[in-house]
Amino acid sequence: MASKVCGKCCAPKHALPASRSKLKRSLFVEAMAGGIVLILAVLGIVPHPLKVGDQIDLATQQRMQQREEQLRQEMIRLQQEFDKMTQELQSGLFLKNMLLAMWEVWPFGALPGALVLLFKLFWMATEVDSDESESSSDESSSSSEEEEEAPVNEWDVGRFLMQQMQVPVLHLAKRCKVVEALVGDLLHACHLITLNTPLLRLEQCIGVGSAFEGWSSHWDTVYSLLVPLKPPTGHCFHLELGAGGELPARHGRVRVELECVCLRQQLLGDVRCFLHRPEAELGRNQGPCLLQYLCSHSYLDVEKTACWFQLTAMNAWLLLPASHRCRLTVLPSSRSCKLRLEKVSGRSLSIEILFGVQQGDSRVFLTSQQARAGLPSSTTWLESCAVPEMLFFRFVARQAPQDSCHLTCLNLFARLLEGTGFSTYCLKTVLMHLLTVIPLSRWHRGHLLERVDGILQYLQRCLEDKQLHHFLLGNERVPREVPLPVAFQTASPLNLFQRLAQEPDAHAQALRDFRRLQVRLRSLL
């Protein structure tokens, strides 16, 4: 009785695998049948398939050689058709020719190459169609009118220059974001390395210069970033601005003083009061590191600061994931940190990190930037307006029309000024003045020629009067979104063309350079 119950219970257990195996065999047979049908279908499509046995006779071998030569000639013809692809795309015959070529080379295994070639042509045709659709939306004349020479108007030139300048500017903006994020990660790694040392605190970097203002006069752009410096706990900065220099190019020094942190030391115990702790307890190697290593006679030393940051950056770079894909090289520099990043592909990126100490709540800094005439000592810092100027261009970008041409004008003149005595800062000052005088709604790309002519006229008047005022000094038109020190707001205007008023030869040369600039612009437009 027990054996019968066991037989009834065991029978389904053995029957289930058997049914599964039958199902697998049936699926395999169906798959094989489908594969055979597919192969037969392909063999039915292929014209005159070759019959190859165990031994290939001489006649078959000769036919294969002839066919090989025919295929070689066919591939030459396909290459010629590929070279004439643009005309075929316009005439609409490329698809027919490629299908015929595929049909002829199918039997000999050239199908993958033909499909790849067809895919390439289809992709390029799609790009051509998209380009034509984009250009047709911008063009106001029909195709028949385009064949004739249309008169050049302001809008056509504006569109042309915008197209020429817009792609580099957009590419520049993307690279600026990447560079700013990369330097931010590097500063964070530097902070981790120097966390337990009473040295300088590195604040978030600020992009400055032509690249971060939205324009650049050279393709090999150097991306400049300013790193604000803060004193460590127990120290404070006092700025001593030179009274002899003129705003905003005056010099200054940063005096480092000690602060009492005894109360914090008693409550938290995370700091030491260097001011009231006896020197005998501090020991030789436990003194205030900032005054010992980065200062000269109680003043923050630019060269020592740059050297310290260069060493810290080299060690911090190894902590970043980007170090596995790029090679970092620290270039020689006594007042900044110049970096060159090289990818495996060989492309390189140049970055310059400047250091600055902020003046109060304003965005004006004493920076480590090198002056043209040189600086008297390593404890001398140069006053810079790079951050307020960058903020002004960002303000204009938010308020101006989406297709504003002010950056196109600046980029255009930056290229035309090469070889002349005018600096890009001179033309940038002219542009900033005009941006606050002419409504931003009139900087549409349709007004490009009018704006270019306005820049030339403004520059010509400045040369005739031998006077071009600095944009940020004593100018009531500076937006409130650009914070400036009170001394800047109440200062008298600074003449950037003072040298022209003092030297007649320099003024005559400036007028000749202006005429050269006019000739270059006429030849371009």
TrEMBL record:
Coiled coil regions in record: 61-88
Residues in Mab-21-like HhH/H2TH-like domain copies: 422-472
Annotated membrane topology: Single-pass type I membrane protein
Location of this chain's protein in the cell: Membrane
Keyword set includes Calcium: no
Keywords on record: Coiled coil, Membrane, Signal, Transmembrane, Transmembrane helix
InterPro entries linked: ITPRIP-like, Mab-21_HhH/H2TH-like, MAB21L/cGLR
Residue numbers spanned by region Disordered: 132-152
Pfam families: Mab-21_C
TM ranges: 27-46
Family: Belongs to the ITPRIP family.
Name listed for the protein in its UniProt record: Inositol 1,4,5-trisphosphate receptor-interacting protein-like 1
Gene that this sequence comes from: LOC136992024
